[in-house]
Automatic annotation (TrEMBL):
Assigned protein family: Belongs to the G-protein coupled receptor 1 family.
Superkingdom classification of source: Eukaryota
Residue ranges constituting the G-protein coupled receptors family 1 profile domain according to the UniProt record: 43-294
Lineage: Eukaryota, Metazoa, Chordata, Craniata, Vertebrata
Protein's name according to its UniProt entry: Olfactory receptor
Coiled-coil regions listed: none
Keyword Cell membrane listed: yes
UniProt organism field: Felis catus
């Protein structure tokens, strides 16, 4: 066995995978990735600042949007060090403890984003299907309780499966599929019994991501049914337009995560480039696109951003 193989199997450190075959171009590749991370931070901070400083935006819909922006901001922070570290040449490996911690934050924030999107779907359902009781149903106290529930659901259900990663025996080459750590990537290298991780992990995906997606779909079926009952065509269009931003946010979150899950489950023999592309899309696409979507599609946010930067409306 070669020295590199011995290191990979017996070490408690893992090799991060950047862009195979393009190592000599990492400096150039780092430019768009640095720009994406800068846009993620500036865009989500701008949304948070606008919501915080504009009294007219202190409404349930925008409180949930602030939760989404904060989640996206944290997702960017959780992966920036390893992704840009590889491209800038000062990170090549990651310790098991750091890998486990990063995995916890990535998966926890994914569950949190899914939960926030579900809460936003509930908000749209109440606003369209029961508008007269909107303010009495979604009070500040209830929004705070929803936020605490989302935080607990996303952070307290994951530790059993994540902590167990610390006690697995990793006897296969310690080469990760991405520039960051994922639970499914770590258990792929383990020679220990991983049935608990596989079953519990699948149960988490079903009870969080899949259940949230189904409930979001049901909420929009009910919204569509209510909208079609409106006599005025203009009112129907106006009601549906309030959902466009949320539908776009749901799409940019669920499409990449479904693709990455399918690749990890059934595409083990695909090109590493497929894993790299889907992995980075899963991590960076929602945090990048959500501020853009809401700044363009939500009139209140767009006007406040225009005033913030002194844009003139033509």
């Amino acid at each position: 066995m070669s020295p590199i193989s011995i290191f990979n199997v017996n070490s408690s450190r893992f090799i991060l995978t950047g862009f195979p075959g393009l190592e000599v171009h990492y400096l150039w590749i780092s430019i768009p990735f640095s720009s994406i991370y800068a846009t993620v931070f500036l865009g989500n901070c701008m949304v948070l600042h606008v919501i915080r400083t504009e009294p007219s935006l202190h409404q349930p819909m925008f409180y949930f949007l602030a939760m989404l922006a904060l989640t996206d901001l944290c997702m960017g922070l959780s992966t920036m060090y390893t992704v840009l570290g590889i491209l800038w040449g000062f990170v090549r490996e990651i310790s098991l403890d750091s890998c486990i911690a990063q995995s916890y934050f990535i998966h926890g924030l994914s569950f949190m984003e899914s939960s926030v999107l579900l809460a936003m779907a509930f908000d749209r359902y109440i606003a369209i299907c029961n508008p007269l009781r909107y303010s009495s149903i979604l009070t500040n106290d209830k929004i705070m309780k929803i936020g605490v529930t989302i935080l607990c659901r996303s952070s307290l259900l994951i530790p059993p499966v994540i902590i167990r990663l610390k006690f697995l025996n990793y006897c296969r080459p310690h080469i990760l599929s991405h520039s960051f750590c994922l639970h499914q990537d770590l258990i792929r290298m383990a020679c220990s019994d991983i049935r608990f991780n596989s079953i519990y992990g699948l149960a988490l995906v079903i009870s969080n991501l899949l259940l949230d997606a189904v409930l979001i779909l049901i909420s929009y079926i009910m919204i569509l049914h209510a909208v079609l009952a409106i006599a005025s065509r203009e009112e129907r269009i106006k009601s549906l337009q309030t959902c466009v931003s949320h539908i776009c946010a749901v799409s940019v979150f669920y499409i990449p995560i479904i693709g990455l899950t399918m690749v990890h489950r059934f595409g083990k023999h695909l090109s590493p480039w497929v894993h790299v592309l889907l992995g980075n899309t899963y991590i960076l696409f929602p945090p990048l696109m959500n501020p853009i979507i809401y700044s363009i599609k939500t009139q209140q946010i767009r006007r406040r951003v225009q005033r913030l930067f002194n844009f003139k409306k033509f």
